[in-house]
Design brief:
alpha/beta; single chain
């Protein structure tokens, strides 16, 4: 497990607030400002999406931000360049989230080594098959001290959840429902799913994502996991109110 992620969950195992934003959105060079403002606002964990033209798991809000980021000129190479001094500014755990195609184009080994070089703690690649990760990627991730964050859904059977737990060394991303990001399904309807996962007594903590958009859904998620991940709601906020320190602080206060 990455040291920063391990330290986070060891000192605070409840009500962890993770915020996602798309690199290069709303402006090409706003990445560091957004990270710093989120850290200053008291967020526990930051997920940075690297854009892709066909983000299958994402709803319209993140799809549009991804498309705009590409139009702005964001690439993985540029993102790593922007992040090269981030550890001189903050020690908050940072995860990169995106799809396999850009990683393959960049070069898998180069991508993981670059993550380690700039101080990224973990990676979420939703379309990376678990079996393929275990066979081809696991040793590379672990050699470089990068956590691979795997996802589970209500359709993931208990045996597979336990296999994913055994392969994980950061936390498990518990997708709240069988839908895309930005959906607003009632989390109360997922109680059977949440109870089933909690009864497995997994080694790794879980964070719930998809559909977390206000204090009520955040609190509901936190009753069933160590915390929650907010993506589409924050991207919407950036679209409307911008990325200033005051704007981001006001957004984060809604969940505290």
């Amino acid at each position: 497990m990455s040291t920063r992620i391990q330290q986070l969950f060891s000192k605070k195992n409840r009500k962890i607030l993770s915020i996602y934003f798309t690199a290069g959105y709303p402006t090409l060079n706003g990445t560091i400002e957004i990270i710093q403002n989120l850290a200053d606002a008291g967020v526990d964990l930051i997920e940075i999406g690297f854009p892709f033209s066909d983000p299958l798991a994402d709803g319209p809000v993140i799809q549009q931000s991804s498309q705009k980021a590409i139009e702005n000129g964001m690439t993985l190479k540029l993102l790593f360049e922007q992040l090269k001094n981030i550890r001189q500014q903050t020690n908050i755990p940072i995860i990169l989230m995106g799809y396999l195609n850009p990683v393959l184009q960049f070069g898998v080994e180069e991508f993981i080594e670059k993550c380690a070089e700039v101080g990224i703690d973990g990676v979420i690649i939703p379309d990376l098959p678990v079996d393929y990760y275990e066979a081809h990627f696991k040793n590379l991730f672990r050699k470089n001290g990068i956590s691979n964050i795997l996802l589970i859904t209500p359709e993931t059977n208990s045996a597979r959840v336990q296999m994913i737990d055994a392969l994980s060394d950061g936390f498990i991303y518990m997708v709240s429902s069988n839908s895309i990001t930005g959906s607003e399904n009632n989390l109360a309807h997922q109680s059977d799913y949440f109870n089933r996962i909690n009864q497995l007594n997994l080694t790794n903590p879980t964070l719930i994502g998809f559909g977390i958009h206000d204090k009520q859904t955040f609190e509901s998620a936190c009753k069933n996991s160590s915390g929650a991940i907010i993506g589409s709601a924050f991207v919407k906020h950036l679209t409307t109110y911008g990325a200033s320190k005051e704007s981001i602080s006001e957004f984060v206060k809604k969940f505290k």
